[in-house]
Amino acid sequence: MVEEKEMAMETSGKEEEELEGQTHEMAGIPIVPSDLKTKKPGLIFVLERASLEVAKVGKSYQILNSDDHANFLRKNNKNPADYRPDIVYQALLSILDSPVNKAGRLRAVYVKTDKGVLFEVKPHVRIPRNINDLLELCLLQKLSITAVGKREKLLRVIKNPVTQYLPVNSRKIGFSYSSEKLVKMNKYVAAVSDDVDIVFVVGATAHGKIDCDYIDDFIANPSLIHQDLAVLKAMDQKLT
């Protein structure tokens, strides 16, 4: 059994900048055909507080998760329940496989980790169907994934803040357990102007809340996966 060593420090801000200029290209992955030429308003997702923390376990760097690293986390005074990369994985599957994305109306997906590392996922990427394969690709100290046969970066670390990548005229909507504004998603989305891009900010964490000062409105919704499905269904009705 591989000896567990002390937890490595999470990627620092300085290291994040180095990543952008000195990324290591990994094996290409296929892209999904979609109608990318549409100029109509669309949808952007920001997944906040994703659990994608890297640590050195034994001789290799790994993304920590509660199933495989529970003992390691407890020995380092960490709560295994906080390490759930499967949450952001399931969210990405729902978003990228949606009819909205296939219709070319998904503009972008941004993921910000609990430690503040921001990366972009292109809408036309087909992510691996096995979470362990995705975690291997997502090791942040070597993150730069290209399309098969192309030079386009499909998944890459980018500079904070995420607001610099959001359309100026977009409406930014966050989900919060503490919000008293319970809405029917299809009616809420339908009320947004047709010439405005919609940005949904979702907490990709098992518990806790998102605290983002750029959000225009907070609404209540029960869980991350339910949020994604409700949003995508409503957007499909509005945009397609």
Automatic annotation (TrEMBL):
Alphabetically ordered keywords of this record: Methyltransferase, Nucleus, Ribosome biogenesis, RNA-binding, rRNA processing, rRNA-binding, S-adenosyl-L-methionine, Transferase
CDD domains (alphabetical): Nep1-like
RNA-binding among keywords: yes
An MF annotation (GO) of this entry: rRNA (pseudouridine) methyltransferase activity
Bias-annotated ranges (Basic and acidic residues): 1-14
Subcellular location: Nucleus, Nucleolus
Keyword rRNA processing: yes
Gene Ontology biological-process annotations: rRNA base methylation
An annotated GO cellular component: small-subunit processome
Family (UniProt): Belongs to the class IV-like SAM-binding methyltransferase superfamily. RNA methyltransferase NEP1 family.
UniProt-recorded name of the protein: Ribosomal RNA small subunit methyltransferase NEP1
Organism from which the protein derives: Hevea brasiliensis
Lineage, uppermost ranks: Eukaryota, Viridiplantae, Streptophyta, Embryophyta, Tracheophyta
